[in-house]
Amino acid sequence: MARTDPTPHRPRPPAGLRRTAARLPILLFRGGLGPLFGKRLLLLHHTGRISGRDRRVVLEVVSYDSAEPGESTWTIASGFGPEADWYRNLRQQPKTVVQFGNRHHAVTAHFLPAEEGAGIMAEYARRHPGTARRLCAFMGLAVDGGEESFRAAGRAIPFVRLVAADGDRRAPGSVAGGRGRQDRPPYGPTKRGRAGS
Length: 197
Known about the structure:
This protein is of the alpha+beta class and 197 residues long. It has helices at 16-30, 85-92, 114-127, 129-138, 147-156; strands at 41-47, 54-60, 63-65, 71-77, 95-100, 103-111, 159-165. The protein has a seven-stranded antiparallel β-sheet, with helices on both faces. Strand 1 and strand 2 form a beta hairpin. Helix 3 (114-127) crosses helix 4 (129-138) and helix 3 crosses helix 5 (147-156). The longest helix is centred in the N-terminal third of the chain and has 15 residues, at 16-30. The radius of gyration is 17 Å and the shape is globular. Residues 1-5 and 167-197 have low confidence and may be disordered.
């Protein structure tokens, strides 16, 4: 019988060649190949809380909803826990930009309570049972395949909902006419420490 202890034993972030391999999807997004990932991955810009520099990470989309007129939401999870750099950076600067396919969206991050995370993980496990088991094992969260064990795991995983107004689909740093694209988010400080526009 599988152990169902919800205490996470977080993996260490990748280093060396594993880190390089993990960052390859960033290059694909930047090269205009974001649509290859369908609705499974997004590129998240986040501002370094110490450096003030634009950072990027590719994350799995746990759920995507565009049913509400004029609004899209993406739910993401921090597999490395609340100490992941992107998670800590979003805590400090929740307004940022995501790239979903080849479209950029200005978003605001909302950090979800543990009980909502429990429901999200249970639903994810219903849709993707094998992947949910592997993800929980990767995060050090043992599950027995039952809904309650996935709910317990979901309480231990930090979930974030990114909310965007679909009316703003400009690329990061672009002006209203869509020209002048720069490779930085419109929120937060830039590499030079000035406020973005």
